[in-house]
Amino acid sequence: MSNMMRDSQIVAQTEDETLGYMSDMALELAQMAEDTGLATLAHLFRMAALEASTADSVLAELDNLPQRMTSH
């Protein structure tokens, strides 16, 4: 496996982990906001969590596409 392919896989894995962490953290913040009666803030954090999880699933779909090798 070439270094460039390996590096791109490491970057993709790091992005997946980061998006998963962001989604989890946003859900925790939403719960904290809801517990303190801040419904609007809770809603915004839930939207952020949804956005992060959607981006995560889009990246996963892109990873599953056949890899095309191009020569230069």
The total beta strand count reads 0
Structural class: mainly alpha
The DSSP helix count reads 2
Shape descriptor: elongated
Ends: how far apart? 18 Å
Return the string of H and E elements: HH
Rounded Rg:
17 Å
Mean pLDDT: 82
Largest sheet: none
Q: Explain this structure to me?
A:
The structure is a single chain. The protein is mainly alpha-helical. The chain has a domain of 39 residues. 82% of the residues lie in helices and 0% in strands. It has 2 helices and no strands. The longest helix is centred in the N-terminal third of the chain and has 33 residues. It is elongated, with a radius of gyration of 17 Å.
Lay out the secondary structure:
Elements: H1 3-35, H2 39-64
Helix pairs in contact: 1-2
Write a short abstract of this structure.
By secondary structure, the protein is mainly alpha-helical.
Structure keywords:
72 residues, mainly alpha, 2 helices, 82% helix
